[in-house]
Amino acid sequence: MATTTTISQVGEFPLISSMVADLAMGQAVTLGPGDDGAVFQIDGSAVVSTDVLVEEVHFRRRWSTATDVGRKAVAVNVSDIEAMGAVPVAVVVGFSAPGDLPAAWAREFMAGMASEADKAGVSVVGGDTTGGPVVSIAVTVIGQTAGMAPVRRDGAVPGDEVAVVGQLGLAGAGLVLLGRGFRSPRAAVAAQRCPEVPYGQGRVAAKAGAHAMIDVSDGLLADLGHIAEMSGFAIDIDTSKLDVAEPVRTVGMATGVDPLTWVLAGGEDHALAATFAPNTVPDGWTVIGRVLPPDQVSDPTVLVDGQAWEHERGWTHFHS
Amino acid sequence: MATTTTISQVGEFPLISSMVADLAMGQAVTLGPGDDGAVFQIDGSAVVSTDVLVEEVHFRRRWSTATDVGRKAVAVNVSDIEAMGAVPVAVVVGFSAPGDLPAAWAREFMAGMASEADKAGVSVVGGDTTGGPVVSIAVTVIGQTAGMAPVRRDGAVPGDEVAVVGQLGLAGAGLVLLGRGFRSPRAAVAAQRCPEVPYGQGRVAAKAGAHAMIDVSDGLLADLGHIAEMSGFAIDIDTSKLDVAEPVRTVGMATGVDPLTWVLAGGEDHALAATFAPNTVPDGWTVIGRVLPPDQVSDPTVLVDGQAWEHERGWTHFHS
Fold first, then answer.
1. Which CATH architecture has domain B12-144?
2. Mean pLDDT estimate for chain A
């Protein structure tokens, strides 16, 4: 009978050592993993965000490889730093897992983190590993403002153009596919396993003078809803300007679902959505709507083609 | 029948709002919870550490109140920043829990975090809440070097005095008490529920020129072992200088265990241990041993009264 080495057999300290041994440290890092804390330089103020990924809630081991999960853990979190217009610098990870988890899974997870961290321009500087009933991953990213004011959610003003960069709808369509046992279209499945975050575009938006910004994690309508509510103005989306990617159309046809549903309400794509003064939207961003004056619509909500949206706006956890 | 409101009934967004509503932000925080990221000022370099606490691994809901767990989550983590000689600034928390967790538990947990954060001089600037099979808490603390070099584990040199500040043995003795259904001596039980971290003493040690420092989380011998190994020199502990607190003696007598076992190998007290050049140990610290020259003992290990310690040195996770 083939045997699989488990993390319980490897032991905690050797596991940590094997997981961090190959990590590359960026120039800002003056002390990497292995001490009580890691030390790195910050240019300007620090910007911090944390995200938790729990097995069977945010990912499934039978649907995603360990590498996918490691990549996703970094991607979804760096996306929040991008959404502040800041520059991501360092990542730490809290990793808990049952003792019978294959040690190879933990190592591949770490390799996935390292690979995505490299892509995102951050260093994995430390972590904590411990036991637990399921695989649970808490990633914290620290970024730096580097001379620019952070772009908040509450800065949208009437007349702003609303624009997005990155994918929309792919991860939501991919979730439906995986739930039905399909593995294609591959782009949708891949987006569910790990989103393609438009790294660097948050900074581009900040430099273009974005008034408000958010990353689209819960769904475009839900997340623009946060900007609308916190800024105190309504947003109107023009669906004719929304790009519905080919794989999303394909999944829509195969399942009888309007693909716009995933573009508007599917979460986990981690596109960036921002508002800009007219004619300041940077190259590569797509204008999809505008911020309305309060005398036109007083309720700070998100309209779709001028109408209230009667369907699902996004999803949250804990709901039955 | 009395009903308890669960976090599932409250929903994720209202839960987050109720949890963060009462948080006080320190002067360094320029943007608190509620956006994609929190923003705060850093003096010098950033120092980061993360710790995960999992129900039934690190705490039990029947042994500890939600307030205890919230306090402990902050304390054990800030302790790592102290151990670098840095100044803790901000905390983020990843909180996952089953949907049937009483909402009151989550709120009291957050109140515990806020209370300990206040004591430790840090602000809770953000977090993430999600579902999961058990209560699992990942806390990340970011500190600042504020003009002093971080105190690492690898700087001990022969002739150094080894000194500690804070409690030793109480949390370990408390764990035995709770395991047997006892609730006294209260000091030991309280230390297990939440350690009394000697806040500020890490900075005191750094200012006194400490050569190496660590927080005692796994056990004095295990943690001094990290200093010995990373510095490349042996450490000898003089047990006659170890203060065995009265409650630890009491538990020892009641259970027939040598109380020194908990002082030397009991974890979770989060005392600080450091090495200093002779005659530079700060007030309030207790000298308990010294760093040996390699011609006296070549193996970088920790001796007890000049002898190898044949018993347990501390504990790690995942072990059966």
1. 2-Layer Sandwich (3.30)
2. 92
